[in-house]
Amino acid sequence: MEQQSGTEAGPVLRQEEPLIVVAAAVVEQGRLLVVSKKAAPEVFYLPGGKPDPGETAAEALARELDEELGVRPVAPRFLADVEAVAALEKVPMRLTVFMAGLSGAPRPAAELADMRWIDGGEPDVRLAPAVRDQVLPLLRRDGLPAA
Fold this sequence. Notes:
Blueprint: E1 2-7, E2 10-14, E3 19-25, E4 27-28, E5 31-37, E6 40-45, E7 48-49, H1 57-69, E8 73-85, E9 92-102, E10 112-118, E11 126-127, H2 129-141
């Protein structure tokens, strides 16, 4: 919470605006694509990022996948809006997740350190809490990934 100047009755508290993030849940052959960033190579996230000013969620998704993986989303469809604390920034986050295919073979670029295809049960992959606690259960409800 941030404190703003208040009235004679006391300060007015305002909730911080959440960090807005768009990401792709890409499942191929029963495995989910996750990436890690150079800033925190031990934590894996869904590929995506923050929209630029004036950019729609779909535009941001296409730009981020191109920048991070050199691919475009194919047939993206809304999966969920997830409210969580951002793993790296430690601030409230609103994550809009799209199911999507990819236009080609992804290759990590830009700020990415690594990329993996997982089923969610790998002991050596530390998932961001929003992916582990909210996105994976949604995917498993629909039978994906194959864990």
